[in-house]
Design brief:
Elements: H1 7-27, H2 29-32, H3 35-42, H4 46-52, H5 56-82, H6 88-100, H7 113-122, H8 125-143, H9 155-167, H10 172-175, H11 180-204
Helix pairs in contact: 1-3, 1-5, 5-6, 5-8, 6-11, 8-9, 9-11
Length: about 210
């Protein structure tokens, strides 16, 4: 019969699983991180792991999401601190630095195509759909800081374009590491300028 855990014990086990999953992601990646490794580090039976998560991929994705949200909230905070002083160039810098910050986090494991495919392939469709919705909500919140005067903008398309820039991190060698920051900054600024232009055109066509 499975052991019964108190709410406090459950919180502590979840906290430890997240900590060890974060460490495993950074050192081993998705493929080489195993449930056996995680439970050994946390000191729980393997059966207990499955009381919390149906798969290692769901745990790893939850940890990745947590860090992703931290990056997002930091970007939003920077935008709010700038207030009316926020310009396209400053927002470009905030987004570019946010994208590059993944290189020093558990998110860096997703910058290897095989690792990304391994994780995404094992995730339920509803989890992936929820992640896309969260990305679009962030885009709406951040771009709400720009002078966009019309809501008839295809934010889903622009959100997808920004995700494409993020995933270009997988190909820094091909793009050129020495010019990568400048390259993604050009793409980000181009998208932001298109957004503003779209807003202005929609406003003038009223």
């Amino acid at each position: 019969m499975p052991k019964t855990y108190s709410d406090e014990e459950k919180q502590e086990i979840r906290r430890k699983l997240h900590r060890e999953a974060n460490d495993c992601l950074q050192h081993y990646g998705v493929k080489k991180t195993t449930v056996d490794e995680l439970v050994a580090r946390v000191g729980i039976p393997k059966g207990t792991f499955y009381l919390f998560y149906k798969s290692k991929e769901l745990l790893l994705f939850e940890v990745i999401q947590e860090y992703h949200e931290k990056i997002e909230q930091n970007m939003i905070k920077q935008c709010e601190q700038l207030g009316q002083a926020l310009t396209v160039d400053l927002l470009t810098q905030i987004i570019a630095e946010g994208i590059l910050s993944v290189q020093n986090s558990c998110l860096k494991t997703l910058m290897v195509p095989e690792e990304m495919e391994t994780l995404i392939r094992k995730l339920p469709d509803e989890v992936k759909a929820e992640h896309l919705e969260d990305d679009e909500d962030l885009m709406l919140e951040m771009l709400g800081k720009l002078p966009l005067r019309n809501a008839q903008i295809d934010y889903k398309a622009f959100s997808g374009a920004f995700r494409a820039i993020f995933f270009s991190c997988m190909y820094q060698d091909e793009i050129g590491k020495e010019n990568f920051y400048a390259s993604i900054s050009l793409m980000i600024k181009g998208l932001l300028l298109q957004l503003i232009q779209s807003g202005e055109e929609n406003e003038s066509n009223k």
